[in-house]
Structure formats: C-alpha cells, structure tokens
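Deviations from the work plan: none for this task. Representative record:
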Amino acid sequence: MGKKTCNVKINGTNCQAEEGINLVEACLQQGIIIPTLCYLKDLNESGACSVCLVEVKGAKTLLRACVTKVRDGMEIYTDTERIRRARKVVVELILANHPKDCLGCEKNQNCDLQRIAYELGIENIRYPKTRQKDFSIDNSSPSIIRDPNKCILCGRCIEVCSKIQEVNAIDFIKRGHAMQVSTFFDGGLGNSECTNCGQCVLVCPTGALAENNSIGEVWRVLDDKEQIVIVQTAPAIRAAIGEAFGFNTGVPTTGKLAASLRRLGFSKIFDTQFAADLTIIEEGSEFLTRLKNNDKIPTITSCSPGWIKFGETFFPGILDNISTCKSPQQMFGAIAKTYYAQKMNIDPRKIKIISVMPCTAKKFEALRPEINSAFSFWKDKLALSKKEYFPDVDYVLTTRELIRMIKEAGIDYANLADEGFDDPLGVSTGAATIFGASGGVMEAALRSAYFYLTGTELKDIELNAVRGLSGIKEASLEIAGKKIKVAVAHGLGNARKLMQQVARGESPYHFIEIMACPGGCIGGGGQPLPVNDEIRKLRIKALYQEDRSLAYRRSHQNPAVIKLYSEFLKKPNGHLSHKLLHTHYHKRQPVKI
Amino acid sequence: MKYSLTKHRPEKIKDRLRIDNIISRHKDTPGELLNILEETQILSKYNYLSPAQLKYIAEKTSYPLSVVYSVTTFYSFFNLKPQGEHCIIVCRGTACHTKGSRRILDYLESVLDFGDEKINEGEKVFLTTKDKVITIKTVACFGQCALAPVVEVDGIIHSRMTVEKMKKVLSALKKKGLK
C-alpha cells in the first residue's frame, strides 16, 4: 500500500511530506532541524519539553512539532520572531530549576540542554528557581549516577528502559515540584531491576544520568610506581574512540588507541580481544559438549553483563542454559593475574588491571564477588590473608572516560603514529574484533565450531545472516551433517522474546547470542555521544573492515591462545579453565526493598 | 498448617488471599491497576499500601514495580504510610487561610500526640498520632471557598470551622488520640 503524500509549505517553500508523520520529521526532510530536548523518533513523542514550537497558519497558538501531524495544505513556519521568543522562554523556564554547574558536569559539551541554550542565545535566566528542596543524588549503582536535580523530565530514559530494553526500572514518581524519574520506592538504581546497560545515559539530554566515573582512581594507580598497571581495551573502543578526536564515524583507530594508552603510562597495553578468542575456545567447547549430550540446549552467550543481570532478574528458570564462561573482560583479568603474573614472575598483588569498555554494566560486573578467581588461585601459593584480597579487574573505564583522560594528558591523538598491542595478551584475531557488533560472537563461535566438528576450516566465514541491525536474526548452518540453528538478539526487549521461548521450552535454536545494547557493544552505554542507528551501522562497518584486514580471522588460530593452553590451561573446559574462566549465576530479587 | 513467609510478602496469608480475590475481579478491565490498588488500600488495616503489598500486586498483575509506584505516588488518594482510624484534612487554600485555618491546624497539633513529629508546611503535612487513631493532612483547596475555613473529617466536609467546633468534632471521635 502506497503512503499518501500531502502538499505542505514550510517557511514559504512548497514541498511534499508523507501524510501522518510529525512536523519534526517533515521539517528534517527539508533540511530544517527543529530543536528538541525530549523527542526520540518512534520512541518518545510526548511533547514534554515544549522546545520544538512551530507556527502553523490558522492555529491560535504555537504548536509542538513532535506531536503535530502533517496535514494537506499545512503552512508551517519554523523560524519567526514569535517562535524564537517562545522557545527562549521555554528553555529559560527549564533552566530556572537546572543547576548551573556545567563546568563540573559529566555531560559538559555533550549536553543537549547546554547546546540548545547556546543556540537559542540565552544569556541570562529571567525566572527564579522554584524547587524548594534539592533532590538527593542516587549513587547506589556502581555503573550509573542519577542526579534528579539536573533532570528536565523529558521521559526519554523511561521510554528506552521500557520500550527498547523492557526492563522498566524507572518511571516518573510523585507530582508537581516533587516529580522525578526514579525507581520503586525511590530505592535507587542499585537496588532496582536496572541492568546497568546505560542506554538511558545515551539518550539523556542533560547530565541527570551519567556513568559512575573512575578517572580519579585510575590516575592514582598510574601515578603509583610500585604498581604494574595493565590496560585491556574492548573491541568496540577502536571503532568509536576516533569520533572524539575528529575522525569520521566508522574509522577504526586501533593503532592510535594503543599508542595513546602507552603515552598515558600503562605498563602493558593488552587487548580484551585476546580474551575474546579465549572465550570462543571455552564457549565453543562447552557448546559442542552440550550439543553432543543434548544438554542445556539452547546455549546462550554470557559476554554481556547487562544481559546477565537481566536474565538473573527476569528469567531465573533459564540460568542453566547460559554459558558458564565469564565475559572476555573477566577472563582477561583472571589470566593476567595468574598466567601472565606467573610467566613474568610478578607478584599478582602488584598488578592492577584497568579495562576500557564501551559499557557501563562492566563496572558492575567487575564487582561481582563470585566472578573473581585470581585471588583464590594465589591464596594458598602465597599464603595470602583475607585483607590482601584483590579483584580480577580493578577499575573499569568507559570509552568516554578514556577520551577525557587522553585529553587531560594533552595527547595529540589524531597525530599519533600507529602502534601495536604488547605480547602475549595483546595478540588477537578478526573473530575477536567482531565481538563488538551484534552477531559477532555467534559468527566467531561458528567459525571455530565448524573447525572443531569437521577438522577443516569454514571457507565462507562471513555470516551475513547474523549481521546487521534487525532485532532478532536467525541462521542455520550445516556442520558435519548436523543442522545447527542459531539466533541473535540485541536490545533486551528482543532478548526477552527469545527467552520467553526458551522458558516455555519451545526454542528451536541450538545457540543464542544476546547483547544488551542495540547494535551490540559498539552502541554500549559508555560509548561517545551521540549514538543512533546511522552511527551504529558505521561503527559496525569499522569492525568488519578491521576483521577483513587481519592475518588470523579464527579464534582457534590465535598463537598466543594456543600457547596459553600448552603452557598453562592444558585443555579447554579443563580443571584450571573451570577455576579461572567459568562462573555461575544466581536468581535475583527484582528490588531489594 | 504453617506458612512460610518472607519479608517481601504481605505478612499474612489472609492478606494475599484478599489481594488475589481483588485482582481476579478486576483483571483485564480498563483501569484495573487503579481499582486493584484502591480496593487493596481500603481493605488494609491502617488504610495504606505497604511495599510488600505493592510488590505482590506487581508480581500478580505483571505491571512493572516502577509503574505501580508511579501510579500510587501520582494519586493523592493512595497512602504509603499507615493512617489513623480517622482522617482530618484541613484546607490551606487562600480563602481558608485568611479565615483562620492555620489556627485550626495549630490547635490540632497542640492536642494530638504525634510523638516527635511536627507540622512543617514546607512539605506535605501528613501526621498520624502515636496510637494510630487520628491522621491529619492538609490540602491546597477543596473548592468550597465560600464555606471557609473548611475541614474534612472522615470524608464529610465541615464548613466555617472554628477551634470550638473542632473541639466538639474531636471529642465525638475516639478520645484515645488526645494527649
């Protein structure tokens, strides 16, 4: 069915627009950007912020563009004195209650409110603050800090949390001046269903939602010369970090990333991708064993900590199906503080592991008590006391935090000469690179599973069926006479659909990959702002391009991983692997009240 | 028969059965959540909704906890703190204020035993006597300004209230809440 178009006039120019779309979209098609603080296409069209005012001929008042639909013969003006004045009043009223501490704000320079206030030429705020008592800041979550005083009640975070992620941790509470976005009984994000995915941080137009910053702690360990400070960076970082230093979106800057980390003073520049290859070996072997015994099928991937907390909270009945493999971040920490420490003869107590992740949930993951195993590995060997406890991963930085550190250190990122990662934990394959995109873990796993089952290499290794941005992707592959059905979901709302099938026992799949964030890690809650589908696609392209350029593209070919098994772990899913690289999950109360 | 109860559940099995019954009557009707919350509150001792009750309702109706909390905090009808047996609401609108509603509030504070709590008009006034007999609240306007000052006692509007009349109303209520 063809869509009807109608004739409209925008700022005096005749043009056509599809019937029924809103005026923000109709104007955008004509190259006019309507300022808005709450609008998100197809997601939040509530007219909450009132900034998108436009003049429509015949209408008594100014109309909000995001909640006004295009009609035939409409005459729209977007740039008149009346509109400019009204928008200014609206933004000044919003700013009346907004803290004016932009300088110290986590979102400084990435803030929609700040940008629009500047663009509208707001010089002073004519209205007094009406909020009598400030809200307390919610720092109950290790991942996300929520400052309700900075919130403008646009509702974007609520819509993302409920419609995209289907977590529903937050909603508006109370009324009038007391209204804020909060959790059940205002108990804080850390005591709620929140999965720490950080998608709310990506859409927040102000600094009301931001990551729990660890920059100070990381500078402190970098300054401590006693410590051996090792850094690992996730695949998705290289695809996005260049955006902050003037590179076009979708240009990978892996060499400059490694060089800048060395300039920051890290002793060793290692790669989470090494651990991603290791994950594939462990997870692949685990999957093939389960497949052979027809036990705990479908197997579900476990790399995404947002997904893991989601599963523990909403689907406690299917936890057995989730691979027991730790995520690459945690595998890296465990291997660096055991194998690498032993090999290099370093006291594990002196090693600090900093990870750079595209993810806010990784901060939560690193604090999980059951996931830390290097300490128990060394406990008896070095006669360690409980007081000397150390975690596998010490601090987690998001991509945005690393960008700030690079800028603070005055490193001219764009003009750095490319450098490589260090041996041995910096060696990786293209299969690990694509971990950062939705479908990547599945593709990497199948590349190796094929080899394990048939003894020959898969020829056409690019599995287009599991690539791209459609919510749920499925594929089937014939390996050694057996048809393997797989599914990939990104965004927890899509994950919920697949998990309901699994919970009912009706899942037709053998292997399921879940990533909490839309698009996978490249669209993670810790990535540079803004993030939208166009940007997601370009970042994904960057990873696939990087994969194609690498000598090794299959995890089981990684020479450093092969060496790790021969020198230390002995065999996949062996005794030591289980101690260091595997974990367990537990049912969670949705809310601790 | 012994029931195992956790602190996350309504304390008594009777409570749960009562809520189950309310839910089954309203399930899949328009505005079901409001109706369920309303009836649950009315049938609860001390006329309020406890976290445990809200959690139980959310679980049984599949509404997210955040939504249930959002609804209960939006409507002033719902109470999240225990209420006294009797509820006195003093109007603090402009007309009632000029006609002396502050004096009535001061009088109530002087004769009722709220323990350590005091009236603070900077925030929402919501006080219950220690023995849980009387709760006093304020409201911005009843829309009965011609009858100012207005006080609502257990759902009945009393017009042109004075301290003397308030004394009589209080003694008609149970005297237990008095100092």
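The interface with chain A takes residues 8, 51, 54-55, 64-70, 73-74, 122-123 of chain B (CB under 8 Å).
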